[in-house]
Amino acid sequence: MFTRRDTMALGLGAATITLLPISVHAAADDAIAAYTGGASVTEGGVMITAPEIAENGNTVPISVEAPGAEEIAIYADGNPTPGVAVFKFGPAAGSHRASTRIRLGGTQDVVAVAKMPDGSFQQAAVEVKVTIGGCGG
Amino acid sequence: MISRREFLQASVAASALYGISGYGNWGKLAAQQTLTQDDLLKFDTFGNLSIIHITDIHAHLKPIWFREPELNVGVGDVKGKPPHVVGKDFIEMFNLKPGSPEAYALTYEDFVALGKTYGQMGGMDRVATVVKAIKADRPDAILLDGGDTWHGSMTSYLTKGQDVVNVMNKLGVEAMTSHWEWTFGTDRVMEIVDGLPFPFLGQNIFDSEWDEPAEFPDYTWFERGGAKVAVIGQAFPYMPIANPGWMFPEYSFGIRDRRMQEMVDEVRAQGADLVVVLSHNGFDVDRQMASRVSGIDVILTGHTHDALPEPVIVGETLLIASGSHGKFVTRLDLDVRDGRMMGFRSKLIPIFSDVITPDAEMATLIDAERAPFKDQLEEVIGHTDSLLYRRGNFNGTWDDLICDAIMSERDTEIAMSPGVRWGASLMPGDAITREDIHSVTSMTYGQCYRTEMTGEFLKVVLEDVGDNLFNPDPYFQQGGDMVRMGGLGYKIDISKPIGERISNMTLLSTGDAIDPARSYTVGGWASVNEGTEGPQIWDVVENHIRKIGRVALSPNNSVEVTGL
């Protein structure tokens, strides 16, 4: 039986499970709905900086920025526990930006939801691929 | 007033016209045995600035055979667009003459027959002649190296890249970027970089601990032809994923196109008249980056080993693809005025080794670098009756031979060989020297492992590597070819998403379907994990060739490709 660590040992052949069960996405949707209280969420207004392909799925650097936001919540929609963090910005905040590192169990969307001062919500999502296969040309 | 956009289009037409007049006669000239160095170098000097681009030489200092791909599939928006055009389609698209020298240089068509007529290509002593000739015409031409330079030969392995560094320094390179360089490890890279007479660029090389730009310069400046030229570096983005990250744990890479935009804006604000990106992204990644980042005049592409006789234009950005293994050099002349690129003329110069006179000084240097190892390099291990080549999306004959060697020498049911794009070809009848084996296997992590994998896991491997090649978003493509399998056949539908491309996996020795639950013995090489054990792959291949004496490979029809 191959563990993930063993698969990494095989180098070019190595790979991870890339298909995530639908129920996991639903868990993320539920978590976001709980955060917004069911309010509608508009797309845009949030910028996520993340690698297209994670160099190490165990520690993926993510930055989020949403000008004017009171809070920014981050979700990893394929992780068993999708909620990652909620950053809160005080009224004197010079910028509305935060960086952290998160663990991703496989290829999935990272979603950032910003809560604006008027009570509205904005969101953006980026796909981060978790793989260790492939060969450099 | 002609707009910039119209001017570029007009220039393209002019370039194509030039291509016809410059290339069209070669077939005839060669037939008359009069193809000359002057024909190859003929160039009507244009504008006020010249750039010379060479990339992906993979430490090949001597002339080689190199067969271009028979299959180079483009997916999504780039289907059927250069460089995803091969053979007769390529000849037609670029208006070449079948059987002509340029058709031989740029396609796989009639490769063996035409090779007899036109000979080997490359050789850094010939490249030196070309560079000197361009500089005689335009003394302040800027010479730029796109990386994958220090790695890929037996001598570069034995000297840890020093032989190539010495050659490139003598050639007069003025800036470079990187990929396989890093597989010598951080300490060796830093040791070489400290001694380089030019900058080692990479705006996308970050400190992995702090996620901040690392100490390598983002860009460098040239004042040439009355213009201020900024050259921004872009190293291979997937460095710790496609190669062993443990060899350079201090660094993180990535595409980082937002930062590329910041760098372009920064150099423009500092007065750049021309912005050039010296890139190791791979062609499709560069094409997408050109559409997302504004203000780049020229991207000198690398990594995917494409050779295109004309630039590809995205918006107002020229993409130049200069091939690999020293087979081509691009001369790009530009008219830069009033802070803008107004027009261009380019030529992909094929390095026909029998036509271009070697530069004597460079030839002497190369021979001196080789001298300590000459006997080892040139020892004949066996002969081949088959054409041996690697390049192409699926199995090439070199990898068929390597997989046979692994299965035989390591006693496994299945073998895997990485889908790298480097390695020279050999013609039927050629001797196979030790150096030839290293040309297709040399690396700092060449241990040939033996392990067991379940059928289920083998499918995951194929799906995963397949997605690195056929994901329709170029930013998810790592730029290699498909992993090559020995002892295992499969079908692949490249139009499907990951997890659904691979089917009909078959163990070739029995004809049985691969059982997801069964374990199979598997051998392979180029593991990215630290501590991989096994003999070096070149020794495995050498032992195998010694035993069989002459290589005669059967056609390999074990991969069925659909969804093209």
UniProtKB/TrEMBL annotation, chain A:
Gene3D superfamilies hit by this protein: SoxY domain (2.60.40.2470)
Pfam families: SoxY
Signal sequence coordinates: 1-26
Keyword Signal: yes
Name this polypeptide is given: Thiosulfate oxidation carrier protein SoxY
Taxonomy of the source species: Bacteria, Pseudomonadati, Pseudomonadota, Alphaproteobacteria, Rhodobacterales
Domain Ig-like SoxY, chain residue ranges per copy: 34-135
Gene source species: Roseinatronobacter domitianus
Keywords attached to this entry: Signal
From TrEMBL, chain B:
UniProt KW Ligase keyword: no
Keyword terms: Hydrolase, Nucleotide-binding, Signal
Calcineurin-like phosphoesterase domain location: 50-306
Residue ranges occupied by any 5'-Nucleotidase C-terminal domain in the UniProt entry: 393-534
One family name in Pfam for this protein: 5_nucleotid_C
Domain of life the protein comes from: Bacteria
Family of this protein: Belongs to the 5'-nucleotidase family.
Descriptive protein name: Thiosulfohydrolase SoxB
Organism in which the protein naturally occurs: Roseinatronobacter domitianus
Lineage: Bacteria, Pseudomonadati, Pseudomonadota, Alphaproteobacteria, Rhodobacterales
Name of the gene encoding the protein in the UniProt record: soxB
